[in-house]
């Protein structure tokens, strides 16, 4: 006779897991949001932005190398997941974004890139065929609208088609980050083996580092810049310290907490919370770099916070459980439909 846990205990466990996931998502947004603040002084000190990106990913890959070795079985069991994560979630986002800001204003590129939560909702609803709550959809609309104010999108309205396509490419790669971070959770629910998130991140960074090495060609970089110092709003900071910030906090910590938060929450909710990255980046630039905040930016930041709060408060629809005295089994057609909707092969 099956033993069922009480609804109260299940609910408290779900709430605790959700709260933990939300905390990780906020830590990830804070870590990712600080990358630009640490990178800008290095760029102004003489390092090309593409070299900074390569140092960021390659350094993080070296840090995660022992974890990659520990989870080396993933190369055999999940090669497509590792390659996709490295191509899209690491190299693709970085390369497309930096190529985009070379052609269109940074604020416009950021706004287009952070259309990713809306694209994630479309993926979940129409590709995975899972329900999307109204709260999550409303949160996306508010977050994108508030983000437009934060980046002051009206300040740069002269676009070119290639720049817009590159920014949209960054958004699509970011969708890949959220979707691939959630891969394997269905297998865990059905008793299968869930790929370890640390292993996925480690190999994703290794793949991304290899791809970015081809793109950035770092052998032409002026390494002496890292031995000097960089100016941060009038304060001289060792360049190596900023590099450690970018590698350890803005990459390793950011990716680890971000991937785990997606598994604890959902791709659509974690995507909306990730919009806080732009708000955090703007605030940190104001505090550490002396960049001012206008009234529309403050208003937009508040709207993004409201959108993130609404989205994280949404709860997925729970399937109706079958009564114990009705042990009817689904027919073959119903079983095939259920399996196809969960993304598993029949």
Features:
two-stranded antiparallel sheet, 2% strand, disordered C terminus, 346 residues, 17 helices, mainly alpha
Describe it for me?
With 346 residues, the protein is mainly alpha-helical. It has one domain (27-314, 331-341). The protein has 17 helices and two strands. A two-stranded antiparallel ribbon has the order 1-2. A hairpin with a 2-residue loop joins strand 1 and strand 2. It is globular and about 55 Å long.
In short, what is this structure?
The chain has 346 residues and is mainly alpha-helical. It has helices spanning 7-33, 35-44, 49-63, 65-70, 74-77, 79-101, 106-113, 116-127, 134-150, 161-181, 185-189, 197-216, 239-264, 267-274, 276-288, 295-312, 332-341; strands at residues 229-232, 235-238. It has one domain.
Topology, pairings included?
Layout: H1 7-33, H2 35-44, H3 49-63, H4 65-70, H5 74-77, H6 79-101, H7 106-113, H8 116-127, H9 134-150, H10 161-181, H11 185-189, H12 197-216, E1 229-232, E2 235-238, H13 239-264, H14 267-274, H15 276-288, H16 295-312, H17 332-341
């Amino acid at each position: 006779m099956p033993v069922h846990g009480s609804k109260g205990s299940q609910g408290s466990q779900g709430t605790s897991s959700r709260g933990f996931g939300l905390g990780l998502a906020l830590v990830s947004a804070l870590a990712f949001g600080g990358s630009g603040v640490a990178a800008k002084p290095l760029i102004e000190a003489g390092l090309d932005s593409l070299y900074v990106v390569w140092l960021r990913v390659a350094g993080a890959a070296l840090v995660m190398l022992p974890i990659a070795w520990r989870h080396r079985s993933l190369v055999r069991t999940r090669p497509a997941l590792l390659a996709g994560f490295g191509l899209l979630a690491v190299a693709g986002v970085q390369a497309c974004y930096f190529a985009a800001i070379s052609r269109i204003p940074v604020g416009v590129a950021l706004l287009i890139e952070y259309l990713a939560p809306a694209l994630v909702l479309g993926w979940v609803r129409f590709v995975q065929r899972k329900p999307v709550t109204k709260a999550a959809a409303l949160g996306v609309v508010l977050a994108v609208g508030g983000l437009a104010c934060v980046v002051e999108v009206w300040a740069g309205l002269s676009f070119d088609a290639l720049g817009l396509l590159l920014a949209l490419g960054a958004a699509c790669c970011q969708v890949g980050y959220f979707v691939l971070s959630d891969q394997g959770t269905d297998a865990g629910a059905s008793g299968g083996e869930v790929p370890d998130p640390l292993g996925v991140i480690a190999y994703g960074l290794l793949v991304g580092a290899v791809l970015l090495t081809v793109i950035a060609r770092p052998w032409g970089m002026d390494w002496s810049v890292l031995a000097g110092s960089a100016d941060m709003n009038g304060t001289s900071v060792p360049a190596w310290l900023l590099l450690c910030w970018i590698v350890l906090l803005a990459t390793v910590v950011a990716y680890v907490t971000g991937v785990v938060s997606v598994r604890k929450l959902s791709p659509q909710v974690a995507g909306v919370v990730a919009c806080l990255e732009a708000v955090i980046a703007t605030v940190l630039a104001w505090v550490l770099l002396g960049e001012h905040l206008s009234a529309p930016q403050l208003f937009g930041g508040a709207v993004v916070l409201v959108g993130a709060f609404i989205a994280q408060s949404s709860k997925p629809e729970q399937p109706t459980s079958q009564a114990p005295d009705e042990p009817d089994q689904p027919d073959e057609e119903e079983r095939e439909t259920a399996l196809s909707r969960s993304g598993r092969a029949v």
